[in-house]
Amino acid sequence: MTPLAEIVDNCSFLDDWQDRMSYVIELGRKLPEMPEEKRTAETKVHGCASQVWLVTHADGASRDPILTFEGESDAHIVRGLVAIVLSIFSGKPASDILKIDALDLFGRMGLIEYLTAQRANGLRSMVKRIKDEAARRLAA
Question: Hey, which residues are catalytic here?
């Protein structure tokens, strides 16, 4: 997974929206493929125009577990967005996940304004799913 700081830096050098979208697609290509058996109705993110699946893993050793995520999409740009979302949230304590404003990060990277309404809604659905999962793990 590409580190978030590297993604932010790379986006800052890309002035053209087509270059940014090409970079997002490239990030998606680097995302490990999710095994078919993990692409289920339970892991599917609702609210996305394309198909998106997210799987959550928790270390379970504390009251504030470290969460890691696997993700997949059947669309190139969305797969890249999944890769960025995983870079933002994966490997963080559940309490920290709840504090992260991922949409602000996407805005600062200059990516939000180039997303179609459907893709932006899908991005919000992914973020909501991850935050809901973090809140659920903290409440357990």
Answer: 48
Per-residue pLDDT tens digits for 21-63: 999 999 999 999 999 999 999 999 998 788 999 999 998 678 8
Write out the two tokens for 129: 């799913």
Q: Any residues with CB less than 8 A from the CB of 34 and at least 6 apart, and which?
A: 53, 55, 70, 71, 72
Distance CA 73, CA 28 (A): 9
pLDDT in tens, 104-139: 999 999 998 888 888 899 999 999 999 999 999 998
| pTM reported for the whole predicted model | 0.94
Three state DSSP letters for 106-128: HHHCCCHHHCCHHHHHHHHHHHH
